[in-house]
Amino acid sequence: MSEESIAQTLALQGGMKAVSQIEGKGEPKIGVDEFMSVAERFGFSAQTLAKIRKAAEEEDVGEGPFLANYYANLPETKVQAFERVARDTFGVPYAIGVSSGTGALHAAFVAAGVGPGTEVICPAIGFFATAAAVVQARGIPVFCDVDESLGMDPTKIAPLITERTVAIAPTHVMGSVCNMEAIMEVARQHRLRVVEDVAQSCGGKYKGKYVGTYGDLGCFSISAYKIVGGGEGGLIITSQERLWERANGLAECGGLWRPVRFAPPRYEGELFCGTNYRMSELEAAVDVVQLQKMPETVQRFHDVKISILQQLRTYREIVPQKLNDVDGEVGYLIRFYPQTLELGQRIVDGLRAEGISANTRGPNAPPDWHIYRYMFAVTMQSGATPDGCPFTCPIYRERGGHIQYASGDCPVADDLFDRMVTIPLNQWYTPTDCAHIAQGINKVFSAYCTADTSATPWL
Question: What CATH class has 78-289?
Fold first, then answer.
């Protein structure tokens, strides 16, 4: 056979390969420049950046990294590592890394069965994202008043339950934890799902058990705005496989997470149209480290708060925030309720003069999306389109649904939110720092209040 014939014979039949090598070779899609862009974000000096670039350019990075959770040629991606650490940390079989705490809530509510014609009981205090995610899932938020812990008051839940209620969404606010035992008792009596919003209290515990593991699903904001997280990320945890699959369905475009992703449904209801809330590899690379540090971070905050509270005296005009579990407090804030708004402002001014950071809303404070009455997108029942869905949804109306929101619906929340004084804490305070801060707080209280050993204790 001639050389020309061999060249024309298919390689499958013993002929020569048409392409035996590729001459073209370019730079990796993601290479040293991208790596340096990340390094710059850490704030290194120009001299250090030059050293990092020199070291990086000496390496052959090949085609460069593949910075997505799928198809990476690795034993474990950073997202998978983040989810593994979450499972191990919280002692649950299922975890999903997502792009934000809000995305976690949306996916969890859909997993829990929230949709047209349903209601979810949400706390009157807590960031707007909780109620907004209910609306995004086409459900209706119903606000429940709080108690002096600032968490949902378990005694106020039952009167809000209707035949349309499918879930309760307690929010663990500002480093504190809800009374989960009482909330779960109400939920189980009425066969309702519980979606815990742990965005502000990652690492908090109630009776020795991590919050986020009491409910059917736990949702976390793992972000730069919280004590755990570096950028914008979120986490869902659950002990129930079907809920994990449904939450994945919403977060992974309907079913990309499945063993055979494009296959027909394996069971009725498995597939539905979702969106993309996937966590990025770069975010996971930071957050997997952050989550591993969480127990120690929380312990430092907790120890600082308890150290200061142990040194505070009690005063007739001051009611400390109720702590549902002293040992489970994350502890990055001290909160208390002066008898009047005016007294609160005098105390804040006095604390600042003593070198102690403090804040209060006072009588003429601007709107704040951490309390129900200012969550305008919910309370005004406005939607992205003029039809006003889901508030005007025929399915909701047919089931007897009709919701109205008004300032004053949750009077305890209205009162406490405006009256409370907040003192932010730093995990790195030394015992001396704690003593000086406690001394300053006592000094200001003594100037404006009446010492009373029978007043509400701090612990």
Answer: alpha beta
